[in-house]
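hey m, so remember when u said the tokens were messed up on ur end? i reran from scratch. heres the input so u can diff it against urs
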Amino acid sequence: MGQLPQTTSLVAATITGGLVAGLFYSYACSVMPGLRLTDDRTFVETMQRINVAILNGWFFIAFLGTPVLIVLAVVLSLQGDGRSVLPWLVAALVLYGATLAVTFAVNVPMNNALGAAGELDRVPDLAAVRERFEAGWVRWNLVRTVTSTAAFGCLVWALVVHGTTLS
């Protein structure tokens, strides 16, 4: 079949994985620290709006495309010289799987609960809404920042290993 499909899937997985790791990293080092300095109303309103805005095609292509592309790279690497990247691809898949698990088990339900608080003018205690959300969400976002960044690192190293098999 040739090296092009394997190389293409590996490059695409690395790019999308890097985009996702960068997204979570940006929340960890700028968005959430910036919002920490705001009042309760601004915090809740901003996070509610972000949680709606992020549900778009560009996000889903990277977020859900990454594991598909990693699996494709694994399948295309099962033969010949491609096998040398398999340990790194499997590690990336496991780490990215942890990212997905944290997102779907923790962050998404917290986002949904924040959205369910309703319109700000009808929320009797914005401080309580924020209190139930902020610290836990930040903590678990840090976990998925680490797991997605580690997955990205494994994909980068898989590219390096793959490159050495081409020469």
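this time it looks ok to me. The helical segments are 4-36, 40-53, 57-76, 86-116, 126-166. if urs says something different then somethings off w ur setup not the seq
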